[in-house]
Structures are given as structure tokens and as C-alpha cells.
Inverse folding.
């Protein structure tokens, strides 16, 4: 199973806190430059399109969509090496 990707979506204007429930699992941050930054995991392209569809329905101008580094989840098949203090 693929890991979700993280995205950063920048919008023109500030979204009110009441919109946060529409973007479950993502953080909304009002920036000093008058934009809103939405950042967090998106499970797949269909979820990304759904998120963009929601933003379109709200009517907020979209400035940018940036895919960030992938989310790395620990694997129990390949645990990190143990370090000895010898």
C-alpha cells in the first residue's frame, strides 16, 4: 500500500476557522501575507481532486498546490538498526 503524500495548498485570503472541519487531518494557517496555507496528508489523487473541488465550491482563489516530501511511516519488516554503547 502506498503512503499518503503531503500537500501544501496556498489560497488567497484567510479562511475562517469554521472551514477547518472540511479539511479533516490538515492544518489551516493564516499567513501574514494575507494567504491561507492548508497542509497535510492526502491519500491519493482522487482525494486531492476532492479537496480542490471543495475549495472551488467555497470560492476561494487558489494560488498554488505543492507536493511535499512523502510521509515516511516506520516499517516493522525493516526496523531501524540498534546501536550499542560498546
Amino acid at each position: 500500500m502506498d503512503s499518503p503524500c503531503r500537500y501544501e495548498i496556498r489560497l488567497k485570503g484567510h479562511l475562517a476557522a469554521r472551514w477547518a472541519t472540511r479539511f479533516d487531518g490538515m492544518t489551516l494557517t493564516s499567513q501574514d501575507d494575507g494567504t491561507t496555507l492548508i497542509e497535510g496528508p492526502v491519500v491519493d489523487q482522487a482525494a486531492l481532486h476532492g479537496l480542490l473541488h471543495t475549495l472551488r465550491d467555497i470560492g476561494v482563489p487558489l494560488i498554488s498546490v505543492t507536493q511535499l516530501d512523502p510521509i515516511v511511516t516506520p516499517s516493522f519488516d525493516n526496523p531501524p538498526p540498534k546501536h550499542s554503547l560498546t
